[in-house]
Amino acid sequence: MNIGIEQGMLLAALLFLTGLMGLLVRRDVIFMLISVEIMLNAAGLAFIVAGSAWKQADGQVMFLFILTMAATEVAVGLALIIQLFMKLKSVDTNKANTMKG
Amino acid sequence: MNTLFYISSAFAVFATLKVITNKVAIHALLYFIVSLLAIAVVLFILGAPFIAALEVIIYAGAIMVLFVFVVMMLNLGKETKENETKMFNVKMFTGPAAISLILLAEIIYMLVHQSGASFALKIIAPAEVGRLLFTKYLLVVELGAFLLMSGIVGAYHLGEKEKLIHHRFLKTGKDIA
After folding, report:
1. CA proximity to A20, closest of A4, A6, A36
2. Cβ distance of B63 and A7 shorter than 8 Å
3. Which residue of A lies nearest to B137 if distances are taken between CA atoms?
4. Which of A79, B27, B62, B91 has fewest C-beta within 10 Å?
């Protein structure tokens, strides 16, 4: 018996929901960035599962693009975190809600 | 082969839950790396060995190391020393190490039994991915290059330190505000 599309999609959905929960619950900006990474990874896993079910390589190509986007996003996001930390001496997003430029 | 899939997916979900419930950023990153390794095993079982290798090399090896560097850099302060003695005890890495060892045992089991062709639906070779990448999706590859370029420029611009403005009349930025 092979692994069906249902089990793989269920795993991807569980991981995505975990990441979404982390994004909504945590107030530390580093943890929020990690949660976004978890969600991107789960989306990539869903692409791989679908590509494996249809026996096509398109899903893996999409995973490569998601990987590219994740790398760019992490680089820019970490630079923003460093700037935020230099300004506020903290990585708590509750302290960054004043928008005073 | 279903059992191996279920074991590694359970570990992936467990490690991800440990990521979002952890208080210390470095411990959370360690669990996230373990979660990525578990997902890489899942991808290997699903017949995508190239993507499984990329997941380990790029995600766990490059992106997560960037995270670790920044977290280590931000922690610089007076409490760094006591933090480090608290952080690197044996208890904190037994969980991730145990999960990684079980995943390694799974990979060794699969390699020894050579059931690669039988369990996956169909193994998609890297050559097929590359052929598709540079024919059908060539435009998207170029857009990805644009994205990486803008990412480099943006990270460089955002990451540099704020310059002091020396003006003839306005000594600091505070005078303006």
Report:
1. A36
2. no
3. A61
4. B91
**Chain A contact set for B138 (CB, 8 A):** none
Task: Please give the structure tokens belonging to residue B58.
Answer: 């790029």
* pLDDT at residue B10, rounded to an integer: 93
CATH of A29-88, picked from 1.10.260.40, 3.40.50.920, 1.10.287.3510, 2.60.40.10, is 1.10.287.3510
Map residue B22 onto helix, strand or coil.
coil
Q: Residue B129: closest CA among chain A residues belongs to which residue? A: A57
Interatomic CA distance for residues B132 and B57, integer angstroms: 22
Report the candidate in B45, B54, B38 with the shortest Cα–Cα distance to residue B123: B45
Whether this model's pTM surpasses 0.95: no
Phi, psi of A92 (to 5 degrees): -85, 125
Q: Could you report the predicted ipTM of this complex, rounded to two decimals?
A: 0.90
